Amino acid sequence: MKNLLLVLFIVLSLPIMSQPIPQKLDSLLNCEILNSSEYGITIFDLTDGNSIYRYQDQKLFRPASVEKIITTVTAIDKLGENYTFDTKVCYTGDIKDGTLNGNLYIIGGFDPEFMEKDMDMIVDAIKKSGIKHISDSLIFDVSMKDSAYWGPGWAWDDAGFSFQPYLSPLMVNRGCVDVTVYPMRRYKAPRIKSSPQSNYYKIINKAQSRNKGAGKLLAYRNYMDGGNDITVSGNAAYITTKRVSVSNSADFFVNLFVSKLSKEGINANSYEFGELLGDSTSTSLYTLQRPFQKVLDRALKKSDNLSAEAILFNLAAKSSNKKRVGFKDGVEAINSFIKKSLGFNPTKYNIVDGCGISTYNYVSPELILEFLKYAYYHQNVFYSFYNGLPIAGVDGTMRNRLRNSDAHGNLRAKTGSLTGVSSLAGYVKAKNGHQYAFVIINQNFLSNKKAHIFQDKICNILVE
Description:
Layout: H1 2-17, H2 21-26, E1 38-45, E2 50-55, H3 67-79, E3 84-91, E4 94-96, E5 99-101, E6 104-107, H4 116-128, E7 133-141, E8 176-182, E9 191-195, E10 202-209, E11 218-221, E12 229-236, E13 240-245, H5 249-263, E14 267-274, E15 283-291, H6 292-301, H7 305-320, H8 327-340, H9 365-377, H10 379-388, E16 411-418, E17 421-429, E18 435-443, H11 448-463
């Protein structure tokens, strides 16, 4: 009799102790943030192959940076994990007695990780070839992409920020200048060091050391004039580094490159932008290769917009077989993947860039989930993609979220944030051993903090 009562107690208590996930999620939908905003949610049990929760998952939302899931999954599948982003150096003619009797070409492959040290390696390779003088021209080939340096729907007033640099197949330091401010004695002007050092821009120091009344420390460019005067103002209380984009990344690359060649005693009759024609006979001098995973990790973990667009344009170049590609070519490759690999109709959505900062992007949680499912069930895609995603409480844009929960280290997801938009999408492993894929998009609100709390509660429910 006692055993029967015990069994009866356990059966009656079970719904209380372990409510179904849909019931738990429904209880969250009455929170304050959702009364004045839109949201879409979809959750899929990858282990059982079943959908376990859907709410407005076919509604169109601006995805913000979870758009990068769409771009990267497509690119891994089409480019392959061994793909490299190449910057090539070649020449026409011959080298004799220190003179190149022909043209020297620097050909951009849109490597977003190209830094000053990489430029030094190329300059050193040219020096070691014995070239001291170029009889014709030093030609910078940026013909891989069209001349649009921003994407459709990008905000013009974000031009001075590092997250929206001028796009070019030839860029150095992500098209930005790093400005490091060192405070001195109180009220004195701080010392400022910039990198890469170049006469392409000018530093204007209006800051004060250790003076709270001077206001917040800022570094900004006169982008309204298309200029490259970088002003530092405000209170320099401690050593701080600010990153500021420059106007025209390609010109910045050329300026720095020519300066470095000159310091090595290497010169040319002229410097110009041009193109190595397909029928030209050329000799390869040096190729700098950037592994795909390096670019992928920054695009996902750091939510880097430049890396995502570099991936999009390399995807466009390989998919279209065109000499010169644009945003539309990258989007066509994605739409083809949506139709042929996912079996969805791409005309139901509007995708215009690779990173998600455009206000013209509109996709559904359902579509993003299909990309997550595709990656999970295709191991040639999943390994690179999964390793690139931010880990909750550990790294990337998730390093400060879900630290004190069971999701810590157990959830990998891409974040997204625009004014009025917050999104989260990825994978989480539950205590029962099941692996879930989920997508959450909050739209039409002004509090990222409240959106994050709402999203984190969903993640904790999935883990439990």
